[in-house]
Amino acid sequence: MKNKILFIGLSFFVSANLFAQQKPLSVQLTESMMLKYSGDTMQLKANRPAEWTYEQGIVLKAMEKVWRRTGRGDIYGYIKRSMDFFVRPDGTIRTYKMEDYNSDNILPGRNLLTLFNVEENKKYSAALHLLREQINYHPRTNDGGFWHKKRYPNQMWLDGLYMVEPFYAEYAQRFNQPESFNDIAKQFIQMEAHARDAKTGLLYHGWDESRKEKWSDSITGLSKNFWGRAMGWYGMALVDVLDYFPVGHPKRDSLISILQRFSTAVLSVQDAKSGVWYQVLDKPLAKGNYKEASATAMFIYALGKGIRQGYLNPDILPSVKKAYKGMVKNFIGKDSLGRTCLNKVCSVAGLGGNPYRDGSYEYYINEPIVTNDVKGVGAAILAANEMEIIEDMKVGKGKTVAFDYYFNNEQKRDEASGLVAGHHYKLDERNNGGFSFFGDIFKNYGIATSTLKEAPTAANLKDVNIYVITDPDFPKENPKPNYIEADDITTITNWVKAGGVLVMLMNDSNNVEFEHSNQLVKNFGIQFNKDSRNRVEGHEYEVGALPGPKLFSKKTKKVYIKQICTMEVTPPARSALTDKGDVVMAVAKYGKGTVFTVGDPWFYNEYVDGRKIPAEYQNLTAAQELVKWLIKQVPAKK
After folding, report:
1. Which of 188, 194, 523, 564 falls between 20 and 30 A from 489, CA-CA?
2. What is the greatest pairwise CA distance in the chain?
3. Residues with active-site annotation
4. Has residue 21 got a pLDDT over 90?
5. What is the model's pTM?
6. No. of H helices and E strands in the chain?
């Protein structure tokens, strides 16, 4: 049978040099979506009002990952504007109806989790609680699996795992509901138990507990075919849930094992020549079957992330890279306006409904094939972003960084979770004062990150290459500060001398401890002055303007740093950046090691995430270049 193909305004031009273009593919696709849907939100269907939909949810989640790598405020603004169109000040959500009990409607909540973590606006938490309440009452099968939708009773679909579980897991982590993780694991375990084919390892699209649906097998309750995108949703759900699933939870290993079985099955049906996957996975030679973009992108993302996070054997990486090249060659093109496009996406596929979808082979291959369907583009952005990270990880592979949580140990109670925890310059903080962007730079360059919550010792610094100490506490910030004492100074100095790379990010005279910190850095020829430079008032950003540090970056022309302590330097230290006669950054070679200091934490989210300061200030670029420079200072192993 012939496919119904809808290609709108497409020139079919595929760039052979796409990898060599200046903008990464993830950015090109993001920009294309932002240009195509440039209003207050994404109106996906012509002549119909915009709706709260999973399709918008996946593409905005993909854009978030690009924002976090690029620090482009326009991308964040686009995500926020799109969600604010729906979320009212009281947290109710326009067009959302809980009583529909539609699992698809949970997915956009992941975008609200991002907005809440960044801005801590209570309207977002109210909307999150509303979506979480749906999970409380969502209808289930007898063994506890979520129905895909209320109007599809007794049915679990692979799609539904992605719609619900990553949100459910992140919510559980953010709002301190650890009891939820057993339920989350159950959804994957039950789905695999019901839908996995013993022979191929592939999972059927849907399972009907009642066996009453016409599409379901009267004995097994299963649908008839292995639809590519359904398997893609399932794989992406697994790797995303594992981001939040507690290490040490008794069900975590079960999820990793499911992912490993999934990867084996998926790779067994990868097209050997092109590297991509077919619409119906196990019938590549059947009449009418075709290579499909969204499933290919989802598999690339799930497998690539699984490798990067250590869940999957890295030996499969060549197959994933082949798939990515195949995706670019077979599916990426340009439209008549020169915008990057994703071709050959199955528009939609489901089971049941009206008109009735019987799950047959003929049904799947005859759904419309379109260009730039947002589900497909969202998956392609995720895939491209993941593969770009994997390429970047070569830069710092095998290196380790430890962030100090001992000398900087401010504590506060988090209203959302009720937990008392460290705050200010912490890796898991995504608000203004957090270091999540800075930490991600290390991770994306392949550097293993850790936190040091105890005093430094020769033992706990033994395998650390880079050690970051930020804004040591004093009594105004912490009633019981941990000062840098004599033993700490000896330990750190000896560690640097042996080849360690120390980064000291200080603060101005009103916000940091100087006496003990100076006892440490004087060993390297540095003294922090008890002063405060670049005191910016309001939006007077030029007061905080400084030239790009040439020590580690030729790309950075201008940076923004406010309220800095200056420094005095003597050999072996030297200035890394002097402005108007003041040393604001310094570097010292000491033995085999290196010390880098700056008079402000500088790289906290507020000044690298693109949301606040004008784009002319290149703080994120400077942070990326500094991390690459730090990597180069680590002595080569003999």
Report:
1. 564
2. 83
3. 159
4. no
5. 0.95
6. 17, 21
